[in-house]
Design goal:
By secondary structure, the protein is α+β, with helices and mostly antiparallel strands. It contains 4 helices and 4 strands; from the N terminus they run αααββαββ. The chain has a two-stranded antiparallel ribbon with strand order 1-2. A two-stranded antiparallel sheet has the order 3-4.
Length: 118
């Protein structure tokens, strides 16, 4: 039996969530690096960062030639079905996916550090 190709190439995590998690993990990350890791153009990554900033999920401050990003603590999901949940919970999971299970404390959008109990 031949493998069946999926109808679409969707994923469970949106590019917006992925970029926000990467920014949380590295507040000094360059747009070029965000784009490369997400397999996007720099222009698309810039548009997503602008969306997130406009919606209040992050702030951007210029430090010399670099941007410094800060994820806004306490922000909630946009869709009414999840609207009572904080984005920080999802971001903590996504940032943790880049680390081994026994890794040191992970950053959260709330600004504290939580120890992973593996």
């Amino acid at each position: 039996m031949e493998p069946v190709e999926p109808r679409t190439s969707w994923t469970f995590v949106t590019q917006h969530a992925r970029i926000l998690a990467m920014i949380l993990g590295d507040p000094e990350i360059r747009l070029r690096d965000l784009a490369e890791k997400c397999r996007l153009t720099e222009r698309a990554a810039q548009a997503i960062v602008t969306d997130l900033e406009t919606a209040g999920y992050l702030t951007r401050v210029r430090h010399g030639r670099r941007n410094h990003y800060e994820v806004t603590p306490g922000t909630l999901f946009r869709h009414p079905a999840e609207g009572h949940h904080k984005i920080a919970d999802l971001l903590q999971l996504l940032v943790g996916l880049d680390q081994p299970a026994e890794a040191a404390p992970r950053p959260t959008a709330e600004g504290d550090h939580k120890q992973h109990s593996g």
